[in-house]
Amino acid sequence: MRKRIMTLAVPAVLTLFTAVTPLLADDDDDGIKFNMVVSAGAKTCLPNASATVRVEPFIGGDIMNVSVKGLPPNTDFNFFVLQVPKAPFGVSWYQGDIHTDKNGKGKLQVAGIFSIETFAVAPGSAPAPVVFGGPFPDASINPPFNPIQVYHLGLWFDDPADAAKAGCPATVTPFNGTHTAGIQVLNTSNYPDDHGPLRQVTE
Q1: pTM of the model as a whole
Q2: Buried b (16+ CB within 10 A) or exposed e, 174-192
Q3: Residues 70 and 51: beta-carbon distance below 8 Å
Q4: How many CA atoms lie within 13 A of 147 on its CB side?
Q5: Distance between CA 139 and CA 57 in Å, rounded?
């Protein structure tokens, strides 16, 4: 098993402009834990929403456990790894779904690479399948781009109607499997845009 080292150091220049939330040591020395905060667009309608994320090393990768609370009960949400935590979000990678219970709590466990090495790359353009239309239709070809590191996290309402029912804006966004999601509810904007919490998970 790979040994995980928790790195807390952040360039000094960042601390002059942004309050940096340190990663918290988990009970397991090989794991780290950190919090997500309410997105700007949900602060009025869901002021008590919160999430705790734990990342632990696993064979060939990492396990990420997400626990949410303070959300509407019996509601579906979509979880993403992001280039930056708020609009325009940049490169975004769909991880999974969270369904809350009657108390507005939910959990998600996913396996992957969730560390300083988390990235996306498109060495060249290639045809892409067009499966979904709607307000955010699938692209038929990808733009090429060099490796882009993605260290932030975000959670969205799966359905804009559920957002409206909770008193939030009913804005449609592309952050679910059919690209018809609601607004973002939680993110990691408590960390600088270029120092998302996954960046501090090193080997």
Answers
A1: 0.86
A2: bbbeebbbbbbbbbbbbbb
A3: no
A4: 6
A5: 35
Q: Please, which residues have CB within 8 angstroms of residue 5's CB and are 6 or more apart in sequence?
A: 202, 203
* Structure tokens that stand for 42 in this block: 């949900």
In 3-159, alpha helices (H): 12-15
pLDDT digits (tens, 9 = 90+) for 99-116: 999 999 999 999 999 999
Question: Which pLDDT score, from 0 to 100, does residue 126 have?
Answer: 98
pLDDT score, position 29: 55
Strands 76-82 and 61-69: unpaired
Quote the pLDDT of residue 31: 82
Q: Say whether the peptide bond before residue 88 is cis (omega within 30 degrees of 0).
A: yes
What the chain holds in terms of domains, given with CATH numbers, is: 5-202 (2.60.40)
Q: Per-residue pLDDT for 5 more than 80?
A: no
pLDDT in tens, 165-175: 999 999 999 99
Residues forming beta bridges with residue 24, ordered by sequence position: 33
> What is residue 80's three-state secondary structure?
strand
Q: Which helix (H) or strand (E) holds 137?
A: none
- Please give the biggest Cα pair distance in the chain: 46
